[in-house]
Amino acid sequence: MISVVAYVPDLMDRSRITGAVTGSVRFAAKPDELVALAAGCDVVVVDLSRPGVLDVLADVSALGVRTIGFGSHVDADTLDEARAAGCDQVMARSVFFSRLSALLGLTALPTAGGPPLRAHRSWLAGS
Asked: What residue segments make up the domains of the chain, in order of their start?
């Protein structure tokens, strides 16, 4: 079972995350709550398009908790800022939701002719 803390205000996105997680999911009401909630969890997920998220990413990363951020594929500056703040995995929103279970370690992504891949911070390093 996995423990996820997320700052994802969109209700549709929340339901997709909740549906994919077999453990517990706690949603922060505002970015400032992430640091307190993240202590002891397995993964923190953030919607990078929301104000205030980039301001707390370094503090969340300092806890040693794996962080996954998603945002618009055309907002390269925000994605780069998230990487610079220590976000472990940064990707386009469409990629995040298409690979959600694998990113959370609940399933493995299939590969062509090889063993399944495990979620790794180098995925989509350039996206």
From this structure: 3-103
pLDDT digits (tens, 9 = 90+) for 67-104: 999 999 998 999 999 999 999 999 999 999 999 988 88
pTM of the complete model: 0.81
Angle of helix 76-84 relative to helix 53-62, nearest 10 degrees? 30
Q: Work out the number of other CB atoms within 10 angstroms of the CB of residue 119.
A: 20
State the greatest distance between any 2 C-alpha atoms of the chain, in Å, as a whole number.
Answer: 44
Q: How many CB atoms lie within 10 A of CB 110?
A: 11
For 23-72, write each residue's pLDDT tens digit: 889 999 999 999 999 988 999 999 999 999 999 999 999 999 999 999 99
Structural class in CATH, domain 3-103: alpha beta
* Amino acid in the structure at residue 65: V
How much is the CA Rg of the chain, to the nearest whole Å?
Answer: 14
In the sheet where 24-27 sits, what is the strand order?
Answer: 24-27, 3-7, 43-47, 66-71, 89-92
